[in-house]
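Lab notebook, bench 4. The sequencing result for the construct came back, and we need a structural model before the next group meeting so we can plan mutations. Quick request posted to the team channel:

Model the 3D structure of this chain.
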Amino acid sequence: MIAYDEGNWAIAFIFQLHGSVIPKALVWAVPAALMSGLLRLLIDDETVAGFEDMSSNGSSLSFVLGFLIVFRTQKAYDRWWSAGTALIEVRADWFNAYSALVAFGNQDPALREKLESWIHEVARYFSLLYGCALSQCSASSEMKLEFIDFSGVDTPHLRQLLATCDKCELVLQWIQRCIVEAAECELIKIAPPILTRVYNQLGGGFVKLARARQIKAFPIPFILAQMITSLMIIHWVSSSVVCAMSLRSVFTAMLVCFLGQMCFWGVHYIAVEMEGPYGGEANDLCLEDLQSDMNRSLLAITHPLARKTPSFEHDYEKPLATISLDLHLDFERMCAEFDESPKRTLHDSRFGDSSTRRSSGAVSKVAAEVRWRGSETAKHLKEAATWNGHADGGEPSGRDPKSCTCVPPTEPEPASDPSAGSGTTETVRQRAASSPPSRIRGTYSM
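Done. Here's the predicted structure in token form:
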């Protein structure tokens, strides 16, 4: 498929010959114009006067031929558009299935290595699956596609892949079996009804692939293509004679014949080019680019940072706001500013201890809820958060920053309340507003 730039006036690209049908149309239009001019020179004016009504009689052929050419061109564009849409939808379904499988991975540290190996294995199968699908659609015998390397896959299975009649069906079976085995050994930890969505997307992609393959399997019917081509040849001959017999000027006869043949043959070749969108020619779909795009997406999902959510530090003093930026130019500069900001400190507590995560979320929620009650309440709550190890700035007095353990206070501690470990939000708010916080790390249940 040709990527072109129309320019400011949308006319500069008309001089591009790569992929153009103009040279093919000229092959028919120029001889027809020369033939018409030659006949006009050989025929005298008296003979031409007797055939002035010939142009009106020949218009019926032009009408029928024009209708058939427009009909064929419309169907050819529908085939071209449907082919591209089907392949994009296949890619979307299969990539979403792989993305879901990566998201469903069990985060147990004991299974980390097995999960990493499984993710890389399935990525190779999805790349192979989409590549085999594109190969089945392609009409070119010399197409080379890019795959994620097959290192680690045993040789007998690869030989079986070469021997099978439908490679997509075999690779799809491998993927489905990998999912079943991963669910059995708990590499995938998700509810079965949600995991069913992956199978639905795999099957849906295969159905759309069948729709893309039928465009190659069912070309334009032979009888329609034969009739249109035959009428094109008849019109090419008759148009030269009609223009020479009905027009008095040699130049006018050549011009009218040239323009008519240029239009008919140009539109005809447009339809022929678009009828086979998988042929590997200039105006056909670029299957190599589709495969490369799929591989880039698969490799991006396998990155470790793509398999966990970003850490987030909420600023309660800063309201939500929108910003306008260029993701290619301004985003890198914005990230650099965040890195250099002394006030920004990101704590990746999402992947730490479970009690730490619950305590951090609880204290943050309580802080937001009681902030409006006054400065004294916020001060008490901030002190409580400081002793729980989640304050925004500084280390609390009496706390060892290296060992992250609380040093016993000098004054006697108040009696412990059973609700401190699992109390409600209202209980925590009342304690923070009425008395100094206890210096015992706790977890608040929201």
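The chain has 14 helices and two strands.
Will bring this to the meeting.
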